[in-house]
Amino acid sequence: MASGITASFDRFRLAQVFTISRGSKTEALVVTATVARGGFVGRGESVPYARYGETPESVAAQIASLPEGITRATLQEALAAGAARNAVDCALWDLEAKAAGRRVWELAGLPAPRPVQTAFTLSLDTPEAMRVAAAANAHRPILKIKLGTPDDMPRLEAVRQGAPKPVILIDANEGWTPEIYADLAPHLLRLGVALVEQPLPAGADEALTEMARPLPVCADESAHEAAGLAALRGRYDMVNLKLDKTGGLTGALAARTEAQRLGFGVMVGCMVGSSLAMAPAVLVAQGAAYADLDGPLLLAEDRPQAMFYDGEGIHPPKPDLWG
Question: Is residue 318 flagged as an active site residue?
Answer without folding.
Answer: no
